[in-house]
Write a structure and sequence with these properties.
There is one protein chain. By secondary structure, this protein is α+β, with helices and mostly antiparallel strands. It is built from two helices and five strands; from the N terminus they run E-E-E-E-H-E-H.
Length: about 80
């Protein structure tokens, strides 16, 4: 778990913002979170923890769904044509 403190100034002057007090991540989410924070830092942006957490969870879910499709875990649907009334 990562404890986020709003507007915490570190010795390097990096600010973390967040609305939640505690964040819990899976391993894949944590990896993406680290990349998101790294990208913000490299770009010289203020680190927005809420945005980084959102992106980490979102992209990890996309990765999970792509893995399911590649493993054959999906349902095919037929297209249904709708007649103009």
């Amino acid at each position: 778990m990562i404890n986020a403190v709003e507007n915490l100034d570190t010795s390097d002057g990096i600010k973390f913002t967040g609305k939640e007090d505690t964040y819990t991540f899976s391993a894949s989410e944590l990896k993406i979170l680290a990349m998101e924070i790294n990208d913000m830092s490299i770009e010289g942006k203020k680190i927005d923890l809420d945005k980084a957490v959102h992106n980490a969870r979102y992209f990890a879910e996309i990765d999970r769904r792509i893995a399911k499709v590649r493993n054959g875990n999906y349902v095919e649907h037929e297209l249904i044509e709708v007649e103009n009334a």
